[in-house]
TrEMBL record:
Domain Tyrosinase copper-binding: from-to ranges: 96-113
Gene3D superfamilies tied to this protein: Di-copper center containing domain from catechol oxidase (1.10.1280.10)
Keyword check for Iron: no
Keywords: Copper, Metal-binding, Signal
Name under which the protein is recorded: Di-copper centre-containing protein
Signal peptide: 1-22
């Protein structure tokens, strides 16, 4: 996988070797999706479908006022997979453009993996999606050409059927939010004008050049390598380089479109689009495992980056000046003792628990 995989080998190197202690003596290995065998792919997909066939978790509790989250009411007849998406919907304003972004999503992927193990017999070793491979020609990439009904992720959705995915293991994958519909993926080369138009608050952060940007121009191999090598020890600017208004994280969501971008199904009335129900798409977790890998590679490249953390708990969206001051969230500030938001969906943790993914609470490495 080029430069990025080279950094993955550092996980077995000296910098953090001392952290692989008695609590983490046999870390699972996270590998790029395309390096998995057909059986390994099918096992991961089967575990996702198992969660989608599991019942609603009655412990799930929305903690953000609906006037702020702007999401529909909880559907208790939905599945455990729908609960996973609903949790992300509810916490959306707390876990994006705040200091919770990277820790929460590291914990979130881990929690879903653990549910797959506990509920569905998954053997672990969560895969990731190295989308730098696909960046040069995202639409025609081989990523979208595996239609195997048991081990394939499927292709682009049919524009005549609201971009519902028609092939692969997730064809007809039913979802409860924002209203019932099958999984959708809609290639959107220049998505930012639509995104900005969804909210006057968001629109203020985009100029004309940004609105015309091709999403896949933001996540090529050399760009991600520069993010990993840049800003040693500077958590704020590292996160900003990865998750700015036009950055690799959001661009992959947006170019994939459909559920991964949080667009509204054609049949849903009074729907407010956004990145809220993006975990509807199983690709969300492959994508965020890649985001986590980039954070891991950055942490392992420089000793000062290993424990670097800084961010607030409130999105600084009042104006562009305020956001420039607090791009990873405004006060009250978070710290490594701050609790990760869970909505009682999964067992809790603090930010410090997930700063090192080979320290015991977490126990995995990247290939």
């Amino acid at each position: 996988m080029g430069f990025i995989s080279t950094f993955g080998s550092l996980l077995l190197g000296a910098l953090f070797a001392v952290s692989i202690n008695a609590q983490c003596t046999n870390p699972t290995v996270r590998r790029e999706w395309r390096t998995l065998s057909t059986d390994e792919k099918a096992a991961w997909i089967s575990a996702v479908k198992c969660l989608a066939a599991s019942p609603h978790n009655p412990n799930l509790t929305a903690t953000v006022n609906a006037s702020i989250s702007q999401i529909p009411a909880m559907n208790t007849s939905g599945s455990f997979w729908d609960d996973i998406s609903y949790m992300h919907m509810d916490l959306n304003v707390k876990i994006h453009q705040t200091g919770m972004f990277l820790p929460f999503h590291r914990w979130f992927v881990h929690s879903v993996e653990q549910a797959m193990i506990d509920k569905c017999g998954f053997s672990g070793g969560f895969p990731y999606w190295n989308w730098t491979i696909d960046a040069p020609d995202f639409y025609e990439s081989s990523w979208w050409q595996d239609s195997d009904p048991e081990s394939g992720l499927g292709g682009w959705g049919d524009p005549d059927k609201d971009y519902e995915v028609q092939d692969g293991a997730f064809a007809g994958f039913g979802l409860a939010y924002p209203s019932y519909h099958p999984l959708r993926h809609q290639y959107t080369a220049q998505p930012f004008a639509v995104f900005a138009a969804s909210s006057p608050t968001i629109a203020q952060f985009f100029n004309e050049t940004m609105l015309e940007t091709y999403a896949n121009s933001t996540f090529h191999t050399d760009q991600i390598a520069a993010i990993i090598a840049g800003n040693p020890g500077d958590y704020v600017n590292f996160q900003l380089s990865l998750d700015n208004w036009i950055g690799a994280h959001g661009s992959v969501h947006a170019i994939t479109g459909g559920d991964l971008a949080g667009t509204c199904p054609a049949t849903t009335e009074d729907c407010i689009p956004g990145n809220k129900w993006s975990p509807n798409s199983p690709l969300f977790f492959l994508h965020h495992a890649m985001i986590d890998k980039i954070w891991s590679d950055w942490q392992h490249l420089n000793e000062t980056s290993a424990t670097a953390f800084y961010g607030g708990s409130v999105q600084a969206f009042d104006n562009t000046t305020y956001f420039a001051e607090y791009p990873t969230g405004a006060p009250p500030l978070l710290n490594t003792s701050s609790e990760i938001y869970t909505d009682d969906m999964f067992p809790g943790a603090i930010i410090g628990d997930v700063m090192n993914h080979t320290a015991g609470y977490l126990c995995y490495v990247y290939e």
